[in-house]
Design goal:
Distance between the termini: 57 Å
Strand order of the largest sheet: 2-1-3-4
CATH superfamily of the largest domain: NadA-like
Number of strands: 12
Strand content: 15-25%
CATH architecture of the largest domain: 3-Layer(aba) Sandwich
Order of helices and strands: HEHEHEHEHEHEHEHEHEHEHEHEHH
Helix content: 40-55%
Shape: globular
CATH class of the largest domain: Alpha Beta
Radius of gyration: 19 Å
CATH topology of the largest domain: Rossmann fold
Length: 319
């Protein structure tokens, strides 16, 4: 059986099982092309957090990494949340521990703790509020009662927030995304020289020197919006390479360049059609957050959604 026929058969199997299980398939923008093709809902971390709350299904199949499935479970305690590949983790999320965070909070007792969603449920439970790359600036701005912010775990996103919210002191954590730091300023400028008409779009997890030479800095959702609205015909995309599939599909008349072949997240690429079919067939691997961690992390996530969702722009004081 050739690869195309095998993939088509797997896709049919997934769609059949999805119907039988009353499931919804939620997919991050960095997933494999064939996984993006079976998505009921796709997007960045914020969009997927919001989608999880609205999901009208008994089962959520989360095609992403573990912290995303954890968030879906926290926000949907009555639903079954499946992570097709249990080894799909996030190296950046592992760069912060509860013990070290508690030490940092003792060091800065008057600071609020803002936790990037790229972190474990335990870390979210230790934080005052969560954020994503889409809303990090507005989340920090919403903390009117605080002048100091412990920002975890991504130092590059934290630096980006500091540049845009100068009236607050951002206390950086020494965490980073191993994928986004692989692209260099030199690689960006090299491909820009080859395609001078191309607009440079970079994710805020990239290193500061990359952001300095970029035309626009935004989340993956922001990239979709920018490209759609732009009159430009070509773009250099400095984020995980899975983005190019969705951008090309949504904008077939435009051209996209990736500055380096190293922009690949290994754990995002672990999920395949076969693993999704296996997850639905065997109802595994189920992600369930319980107890005190669930209650506290729920509050941190809901505070974020209250700022970025229906109550967008509302201030959060004294969290």
């Amino acid at each position: 059986m050739d690869d195309i026929k095998y993939r088509d058969n797997l896709k049919k199997k997934v769609l059949k099982l999805k119907k039988e299980r009353d499931a919804v398939i939620i997919v991050h923008n960095y997933q494999r092309d064939e996984i993006q093709d079976i998505a009921d809902i796709s997007g960045d971390s914020l969009a997927l957090s919001q989608a999880a709350v609205r999901a009208d299904a008994k089962v959520i199949v989360f095609c992403g990494v573990d912290f995303m499935a954890e968030s879906a479970s926290i926000l949907n305690p009555d639903k079954i949340v499946l992570l097709p590949v249990k080894e799909a983790g996030c190296p950046m999320a592992d760069m912060v521990t509860v013990e070290r965070l508690r030490e940092k909070k003792k060091e800065y007792p008057n600071a609020a703790t803002v936790c990037y969603v790229n972190s474990s449920a335990e870390i979210k439970a230790e934080s005052d509020i969560c954020c994503t790359s889409s809303n990090a600036i507005s989340i920090v701005e919403s903390l009117k009662d605080y002048k100091e912010i412990i920002f975890i775990p991504d130092k590059n996103l934290g630096r980006y927030v500091q540049a845009n919210v100068p009236d607050k002191k951002i206390i950086l954590w020494e965490g980073f995304c191993p994928t986004h730091i692989r692209v260099s300023k030199e690689e960006i400028l090299r491909i820009k020289a080859e395609h001078p008409e191309a607009v440079i779009l970079s994710h805020p997890e990239c290193n500061p020197d990359v952001l300095l030479v970029s035309d626009h800095i935004c989340s993956t959702a922001g990239m979709f919006k920018f490209v759609k609205a732009s009159k430009a015909k070509s773009f250099i995309i400095a984020t995980e390479s899975g983005m190019l599939y969705g951008l090309k599909k949504a904008n077939p008349d435009k051209i996209f360049y990736v500055p380096t072949e190293r922009l690949v997240c290994p754990t995002m690429k672990l999920t395949t059609l076969g693993w999704v079919a296996h997850a639905l067939e065997n109802m595994e691997h189920q992600i369930k957050i319980t107890g005190d961690v669930k209650e506290k992390s729920y509050k941190s996530l809901m505070r974020m959604l209250s700022v970025s969702g229906e109550a967008s722009g509302a201030a959060i004081s004294g969290v």
